[in-house]
Amino acid sequence: MPDASDSPRPEGTEGAGGIVSAPSFPGRPPAPVKEALRPRALPDRVRPEAETASALAALGAGSVAGVLFFGSQRTNAGPDRFSAYDFFVIVDAYLPFYRGLTGAGRMKRGPRLLAVANALLSPSQISLHLPDGRGGELHAKCSVITLADLRHETSEARHDHFVIGRLFQPAEILWTRDDGTREVLLEALAAAAAATYSWGRPYLPRTFDVDTYLRTLLRVSLGREVRPEPTGRRAFALHEAQRAEQLPVYRVLLESLADAGALQREASAPAGPSFPTPDPTYRLARPADALERLRLGVYFTRSKARATLRWFKYVVTFDDWLEYIRRKAERHTGQSIELTPRERAYPYLFLWPRVFRYLRHKDGPRSGT
Fold first, then answer.
1. H-type alpha helices, the chain
2. CA 237, CA 227: separation in Å to the nearest integer?
3. Which phi and psi (to 5°) does residue 81 adopt?
4. Are 329 and 229 in contact (CB under 8 A)?
5. CA distance 263 to 271
6. I need a labelling partner for 19 at 20 to 30 A (CA). Which of 27, 40, 327, 338 fits?
7. In Å, what is the CA distance from 321 to each residue of 128, 141, 348, 369?
8. DSSP letter string over 15-84?
């Protein structure tokens, strides 16, 4: 990330990728946001999954810079025994990492093919079975990305919403090879949190508190991805699971935005049993205009197109991808999904009608939307 001050961006300035037309924070996120994230991203306790991260680092043969833990297993947002554990594996370069995995007999494909696929549309997702730190084994779904690509994909110049859409939610730094890398990863998480204002603001209600802000972010982010689970119900479940961790961080973010003049403070929200201390209510200092909405529409459309291309890539990078998706769809819909032998043998030819029917109906009345 470029070295920049924490002063607010002037009104109407675009990000390097043309994504943002609203005032936001250039370069580094506000220092208070980074510090608010620190106890969550770097807690005092040692998780059992730290053994998983150490195993990933060992398999990477010296190419792994850090490991982030996120997702439903991290936040306890309704996982079951089939739920994978989600990790970002941050590497120096793709080819040495995949050489380490193939040398250990952990990947079926050649390292050069995997490295090229990762570089063309980063990150790639791979499937590994690793020690869980409890004497057993877990299924790790690893999003592999270089440190340089991670910094780019949490900046205003990012290519799409994949990385930032996951890392504005709770994530924990499980392992890094040195203190400097740990601080870079913490700053990337803070940048992902700060960027929510630029892509979320057109969808905010006229006035909002921090709880409404977070619910809006999840609804918008999940609704603009190609996901096997029903969006509305999933957004609600994630918000309930994440709220306690997210509120302290995003209170600091909204206050920083108000101090910078991007938000106007209104009155305090009514106190209640869940929130004995009322949160301030805000409104946008400058409402989103048609051009900003258009730019974000293009951004999310491009993100969805790139996400669709990643599904094709998973056939190469993600072992047993079809069974994983089937189980995930079953878990979130509560419906049994049985694939025919022909669909299993030739999914690219015969699975599409079922996929389109599922995506069309998954957010219906049963999904809670």
1. 31-41, 50-59, 72-75, 94-103, 111-120, 147-153, 162-167, 179-194, 196-200, 210-223, 231-259, 290-317, 321-333, 341-345, 347-350, 352-361
2. 15
3. -70, -15
4. yes
5. 22
6. 40
7. 12, 10, 13, 27
8. PTTS---S----SSPPHHHHHHHHHHHS-SS--TTHHHHHHHHHHTTT-EEEEEEESHHHHTSS--TTPP
Rounded Cα gap, residues 156 and 29, in angstroms? 11
Contact indicator for 202, 298 with CB cutoff of 8 Å: no
Q: What is the DSSP letter of 8?
A: P
Token pair 């990933």: residue: 56
For the chain (369 residues), the mean pLDDT of every run of 10, in chain order, is: 36 41 57 96 95 97 97 86 90 98 93 95 94 95 97 95 97 97 97 96 96 96 72 82 96 96 81 64 96 96 90 77 62 67 68 62 47
Cα gap 278→71, rounded to integer Å = 29
9: left (phi over 0), alpha (psi -120 to 50) or beta: beta
Amino acid 261: pLDDT? 94
- Report in angstroms the alpha-carbon separations of 10 from 191, 261, 314: 18, 10, 41
Tokens found for residue 77: 């947002």
269-286 b/e (C-beta count within 10 Å ≥ 16 → b): beeeeeeeeebbbbebee
Kindly state the tokens that stand for 43.
Answer: 């807690």
**Domain spanning 31-198: which superfamily?**
Beta Polymerase, domain 2 (3.30.460.10)
Task: Please give the backbone phi and psi of residue 146, each rounded to the nearest 5 degrees, phi first.
Answer: -75, 160
Angle among Cα 353, 355, 358 to the nearest 5 degrees reads 110
What are 133's two structure tokens?
């730190």
Q: Which two tokens stand for residue 111?
A: 């390292």
What's the CA gap between 312 and 348, in Å, rounded? 9
Q: How far apart are the first and last CA of the chain?
A: 38
